Amino acid sequence: MRLAVYPGSFDPIHPGHLDIVRRCRPLYDRVIMAVLYNEEKDALFSVEERLEMIAEELGDYPDCHAEGFSG
Question: Taking a C-beta distance cutoff of 8 angstroms, is the pair 17, 10 a contact?
Fold first, then answer.
């Protein structure tokens, strides 16, 4: 299985982020958008809100999803 991990803050997600995901899909079996937990950064949206927004945007792509991470 070919797996792509796309890390970032995605605060907020925008068309450029989604364009990268769309272009990755033919190259990989799964694409994971890794949403950064960074308490030192003043985020516009919480990680949970960002994960929800990404899930809505990726709804048409069953091979793509988002997960939170730190470190």
Answer: yes
The one-digit pLDDT tens for each residue of the chain (71 residues) are 999 999 999 999 999 999 999 999 999 999 999 999 888 888 899 999 999 999 999 998 999 999 999 87
Q: Give the residue from 58, 61, 65 showing the smallest Cα distance to 33.
A: 65
Contact (Cβ atoms closer than 8 angstroms) between residue 21 and residue 31: yes
Please choose, from the candidates 42, 57, 45, the residue with its C-alpha nearest in 3D space to the C-alpha of residue 6.
57
- Residues 31, 28, 59, 10, CA torsion sign: positive
DSSP state of 29: S
